[in-house]
Design the sequence.
């Protein structure tokens, strides 16, 4: 009897995943722990290993489908004795504490002309139509439909068993904008309140999406970009952001890096940028100001005893924030290696779940783009984020004389529910002091 493999929960806050690429096809024999499929989540891309040895019977999702956790992915005929309680997610999601079950059940029966079988539904609904006109859609399809003012019931489904996919919704929107499909039907009003003789008001319909012009193109949102949009909106709506900035004279830091960068790269095999110095200074300052190494909860401020610094990385798919764990225990040289490794793997989409979990504070090196002032959005549930702007030579007053010095702005955004000026003012003051303390003689490890 075939075993159904489900979409695992690949992270504490992950609710769905997109099938990017099938690595096996029906009829293929797979070994235990052999990769089956590449899944895109809101955090990382992962190859899901097989929890069983056996033969693939049927693929129950298509490439491009976005499915909720628990949705059926494929069925496999297990050879030999199946391992007890060995869900597909056991290897990949253990760090997140996930434990979805792999349900053993027969594959979906083929429909017959005499008695068409109802399409099987999966926990949470996976976006297909089942018997008696009932319809269930994935959360991704429902969100996309709401954004474009589309009734998903009108969208022809091309997924397995007639399931409506994100691509179907986007194609429907484009066809409707070109006038090649009837406009979406009006949202029906609520039933009349017959008991009191008064008609109930119709629910407010979402605003219709603007038509796509002939010189425009609709770029579909990736799982990463959709997650960024949702979390940034959530952060701004949830946390009252406040912001402040200090400028720092980094003449000593510039001299130190200029003197060491060539020999460092030759010896260590990684470049010596300014970012490891900034992360080191931030980590040391957080030790003195633990209220910024925290998260806000309705019942209090959760102070974190370990310092895990998230590093904002720009990739082709959007911003990701891998984490340098226990950053305060690393030297500048150690941080240079850790950051270089995380940035490289982030841009190659090879981050693991552990790489993006557990951050307690975020550093964003916006200065690489030449910016001098930024107002970053807090990476929830953290309470603050700091940016390192471009180092720019500017005239400043030194000992009552005008001098040209390399200056950098350090910009802090913070959650005013958790901290205020009494916490953040001393933090940026001490961070500035540490950035200015570097000199050509400093030890970088």
Sequence:
């Amino acid at each position: 009897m075939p075993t159904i493999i489900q979409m695992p929960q690949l992270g504490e806050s992950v609710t769905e995943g997109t099938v990017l690429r099938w690595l096996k096809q029906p009829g293929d024999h797979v070994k235990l722990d052999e990769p089956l499929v590449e899944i895109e989540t809101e955090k990382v891309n992962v190859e899901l290993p097989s929890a069983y040895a056996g033969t693939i019977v049927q693929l129950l999702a298509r490439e491009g489908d976005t499915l909720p956790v628990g949705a059926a992915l494929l069925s496999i005929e297990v050879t030999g004795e199946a391992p007890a309680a060995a869900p597909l997610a056991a290897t990949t999601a253990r760090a997140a504490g996930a434990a979805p079950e792999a349900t053993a059940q027969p594959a979906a029966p083929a429909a017959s002309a005499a008695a068409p079988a109802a399409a099987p539904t999966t926990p949470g609904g996976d976006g297909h139509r089942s018997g008696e006109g009932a319809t269930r859609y994935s959360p991704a399809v429902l969100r996309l439909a709401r954004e474009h003012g589309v009734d998903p019931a009108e969208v022809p489904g091309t997924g397995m068993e007639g399931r409506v996919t994100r691509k179907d919704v986007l194609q429907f929107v484009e066809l409707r904008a070109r006038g090649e499909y009837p406009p979406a039907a009006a949202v029906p009003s609520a039933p009349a309140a017959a008991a009191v003789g008064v008609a109930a008001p119709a629910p407010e319909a979402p605003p219709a999406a603007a038509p796509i012009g002939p010189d425009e193109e609709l770029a579909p949102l990736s799982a990463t970009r959709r997650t960024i949009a949702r979390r940034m909106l959530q952060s701004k709506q949830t946390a009252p952001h406040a912001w402040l900035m200090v400028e720092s004279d980094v003449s000593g830091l510039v001299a130190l890096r200029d003197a060491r960068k060539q020999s460092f790269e030759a010896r260590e095999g990684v470049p010596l940028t300014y970012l490891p110095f900034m992360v080191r200074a931030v980590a040391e300052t957080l030790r003195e100001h633990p209220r910024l190494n925290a998260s806000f909860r309705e019942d209090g401020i959760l102070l974190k005893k370990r310092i895990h610094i998230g590093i904002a990385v720009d990739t082709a798919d959007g911003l990701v924030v891998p984490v340098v764990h226990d950053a305060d225990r690393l030297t500048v040289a150690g941080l240079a290696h850790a950051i270089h490794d995380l940035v490289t793997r982030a841009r190659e989409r090879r981050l693991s779940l552990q790489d993006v979990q557990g951050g307690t504070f975020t550093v964003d090196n916006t200065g690489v783009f030449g910016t001098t002032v930024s107002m970053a959005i807090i990476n929830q549930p953290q309470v603050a984020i700091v940016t390192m702007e471009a180092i720019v030579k500017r005239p400043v007053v030194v000992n009552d004389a005008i001098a040209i010095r390399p200056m950098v702005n350090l910009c802090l955004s913070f959650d005013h529910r958790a901290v205020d000026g009494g916490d953040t003012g001393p933090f940026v003051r001490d961070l500035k002091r540490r950035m200015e303390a570097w000199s050509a003689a400093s030890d970088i490890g």
Q: What stands out?
A: The first helix runs from residue 139 to 147. The chain has three domains: 3-96, 127-190+205-219, 225-437. The domain at 3-96 is CATH 2.40.50.100 (OB fold (Dihydrolipoamide Acetyltransferase, E2P)). The radius of gyration is 27 Å.
